[in-house]
């Protein structure tokens, strides 16, 4: 009996051993699963980015996107602005403008003189040139506003004036000019623009009442100041030649730059201009005059408007013609062979015939008081 009890206390059963082994195996597996779970969790922490890094990346991406959008705006702001403006104008034209009444704008017509003043490309021009009673002159004109302009007398600059806001200027020297002939012109200082028009002044030794101011343009001459009185010698006929070819030539003296006309029995025959040296020569075809018949020959002096200011009438009875083929002419200051040939021989181009007749080597060189033989019947 005793042996059986001892064996039962010391010997484990097979079931207990199996249970213990299974329990140990389960514990080992559980520990292994826990370890693997912790290991995988650790790996997951390192593989997944943190929330701060994720936020940083998000902010950087937003900034890049904003910069990109700003760059696009900077590059295309002007076309976008133009498109917006065009769109607004189109809306205004389509919807707003049609509802408002239209206004009619009347543009005033600007006179030519005003537009000429406002244009700096135009040349300076004269308005008034007068000889005062004390002998001084007054020059008024216009050019571009607020510009310097020089006044030249006989090609020499004597003064420089400033135009006002309207382009006007006035020049009045302190000393009178001596008696004589003068030519006035204007020069723009900054652009060296010269006036296309000039003014001729004749200052008489008898005073301003006998003086002349004449504006000379491309279209002709205009008298700015006419003589109020004429004196003896202001119109003088020195010679009348009636030629066999039916042509009459009248020479004389008159006020410079004015015009003289020739009339036969109150029939107009032609005109000529008086030179700067007060001389004139006038030739005209009057046809054959009958011997013994009375004729009235008139030489008239005209101002710039064509008004007759002086006249010389010569009544004569036509004498018998002598049959001389030539006549003679005394050269005066300012003469040239071309004008002499035109007066006596109808055509200035025949001057060479006069030169050959008088043995003149240089047709451009003749002298005052030189006596010329004119072959009036030459053709």
Which descriptors apply to this entry?
Immunoglobulin-like; 6 helices; about 30% strand; alpha+beta; four-stranded antiparallel beta sheet; six-stranded antiparallel beta sheet
Count of β-strands: 18
Helical residues, percent: 25-40%
The largest beta-sheet arranges its strands as 4-3-6-7-8-9
CATH homologous superfamily name of the domain at 114-225?
A: Immunoglobulins
The CATH class of the domain at 114-225 is identified as Mainly Beta
Q: What CATH architecture label of the domain at 114-225 applies?
A: Sandwich
At CATH level 3, the topology of the domain at 114-225 is Immunoglobulin-like
Order of helices and strands: HHHHEEEEEEEEEEEEEEEEEHHE
Overall geometry: rod-shaped
Question: For the report, how would you describe the main beta sheet?
Answer: 6 strands, antiparallel
Task: Please indicate the percent range of residues in DSSP E strands (runs of 2 or more).
Answer: 25-35%
Tell me the number of helical segments per DSSP (H or I, 4 or more residues long). 6
N- and C-termini, Cα separation: 198 Å
Rg measurement, Å: 58 Å
Structural category is alpha+beta
Low-confidence stretches are 1-11, 98-120
Averaged pLDDT? 77
Structural topology:
Elements: H1 2-10, H2 14-47, H3 51-96, H4 112-118, E1 125-131, E2 137-142, E3 148-153, E4 156-162, E5 168-171, E6 180-188, E7 198-203, E8 212-217, E9 220-225, E10 235-242, E11 247-254, E12 259-264, E13 267-273, E14 279-285, E15 294-302, E16 308-317, E17 326-330, H5 337-345, H6 351-357, E18 371-375
Antiparallel strand pairs: 1-2, 2-5, 3-4, 3-6, 6-7, 7-8, 8-9, 10-11, 11-14, 12-13, 12-15, 15-16, 17-18
Helix pairs in contact: 5-6
